[in-house]
Amino acid sequence: MTSRRIESFVGHGALILGALIALYPFVSIVRHALGPAAGSNAAGPFTLENFTRAWVGGGFSHSLVSSAIVAVGVVVVTGAIASLAGYAMAMLDVPWRGAIMGVLLIGLVLPAEARIVPLYDMFEGWGLLNTYWAIILPQIASSFSLSTMWMTTYYSALPKELTESAAVDGANSWKAFTRIVFPLGSSALATLSCLIFLYTWNEFLLALVLLPQNPAVQTAPLSLSFFAGAERNTQPEVIAAAAVLVALPVVIAYAFLQRRFIQGLTEGAVKG
Amino acid sequence: MSLGHRDVAAPEKRRVAGRALRSRPATRRAHRLRTTAWLYLLPGFAFYGAFSLWPLIETFQYSFYKWDGITAAKWVGLKNYIKIFTSEDALSTFAHAFTFILFYAAIPVVVGLVIVGVMTRVRIRLLGLLRTVLFIPQILAMVVVAVAWRWIYAESGPINAALEAIGLDSWTRAWLGDFKTALPAVGLIGTWVMYGLCMVLFIGGSQKIPRDLYEAAKLDGAGPFQEFMAVTLPGLRGEISVALILTVTAALRNFDIVWNTTSGGPGNATLIPSYLIFEGAFVTRQVGYAAAASVVLTTLILLLTGGIQALLRQRK
């Protein structure tokens, strides 16, 4: 009995310590961002003027919008094409199914590093470097494997009677998909969307390579990287405020949808 | 099998019967359905093929050329690869990547397992809240993480302040700028990003292990350690495999954190393969060499993730 008490005490202590350490860096930049910068004439210990300066001086009013456009574009298109592909993989008789799965698996572990050089040349050749296309199209491709496997797993678990009865009623595969399967998959699609939103919002390397010269379309993490690099030793409080701004949309989404995020991140890796 | 032919109870029997009874019109119908199935895959594979598979093939092709990105490329066979495997600088980037595996993968997995080892015998309180907080490092952009840690490691940051407070002034330094500490300092950021994920994965997995296995172990007179080795560890095979694949891949890539903390410095102390690829392709314009480095990195990731999966495959 007492040994179990000690275990409970030690275990909870370790978990709480772990949680505090997980929390500390973010809390510290928030506190940093709210504190007055050198030369500030703010009245109290807390001020929002660092956020104003980051918003204006760092161009984050543009880059947060760019990030939102990119994320919405990638989430919507990937969700659509992965639902279609997942439906075929789970419920239709796809020829060479195993081979297709194998090809999809490549995308699951393929690092961005393996394709940035040709992607750069490709978009340069098309004159699309430094445009939204250059960042949206490759990210749809990188999300496709995980998303298709995710939807395939979910659709495979649906009771077969549903589509069977639809077939008996004379519905073709498209009708069965749009009327029955797709609506039933909306919860899985919502979790998947959280996951893709997270990956897309936080992406850095592709943005650095494909959007370096156009502040109008730069995503928030890229702007933050440039801003923090350029102002390194001068305005730490403003950089902290910028970092909070970049993290805020994801943190807010996480606060409301934490279950979906955690489920996505822990199960997303298990697919396939 | 078409939609209508699906039968949960006896798919095999149905398939055989269907084949025997299939008349010519039915075959035509099946053929049409198979073509339809391809149509659903087409849009996705158009994106995937154009922006993932094709660039991958091109990277492989580039890796056999010497090319500055502007003038005509020249076939050099395996020269780029030989250069990677014989140059000390390139090899050191891979050595750094393997050091990061220790920090990104080994430490978080061990920490997670120790916690689970202690916690399987007790009911966990506040699990939902703890899980939410432990996951925070996973949702933040690595650029944000880098900004936060740059401040923690700074000369006037909290680590040095703590050391001064306990009289260890001589230990203080700019942790990311010091040749001796830069690599482990960057590595520990990775540990911070990954340990919460490992804990949450393992705690979730351990709760799915049937309780009676523990009862049986206890009846056999197993102590806490034997119980962990005999019940908990085998029960977590799947979760350990997932955790290792995620963390090892992150350790080998690791571009975002390095770029935004040390930029590979001081000197080459934290230079990693991703950096080699980026610099080769876009700074020094040795495109073929950069492509060869990507092929080596990708192969390494494929081998390690494949190996982990094969080793920890769950028995069904």
Provide the structure class of chain A: mainly alpha
Outline the low-pLDDT stretches of chain A. Answer: none
**Relevant CATH superfamily of the largest domain in chain B:** MetI-like
- Would you give the CATH topology of the largest domain in chain B? MetI-like fold
Which protein chains make the most extensive interface, counting residues with beta carbons within 8 Å of the other chain's beta carbons?
A-B, 100 and 102 residues
Name the average pLDDT of chain B.
86
Helix content range of the residues of chain A, please? over 70%
Strand order of the largest sheet of chain B: 1-2
Description of the molecule:
The complex is a heterodimer of chains A (272) and B (316). Helix content of chain A is 77%, strand content 0%. With 272 residues, chain A is mostly helical. Chain A has a single domain (49-268), classed as MetI-like fold, CATH 1.10.3720. The model of chain A has no long low-confidence stretch (mean pLDDT 88). By secondary structure, chain B is an all-alpha fold. Chain B has two domains: 3-62, no CATH class; 79-311, MetI-like fold (Orthogonal Bundle). Chain B has a two-stranded antiparallel ribbon. The longest helix of chain B is centred in the first third of the chain and has 39 residues, at 24-62. Chain B is globular and about 70 Å long. The relative contact order of chain B is 0.13. Chains A and B meet through helix 1, helix 3, helix 4, helix 5 and helix 6 of A and helix 2, helix 4, helix 5, helix 6 and helix 7 of B.
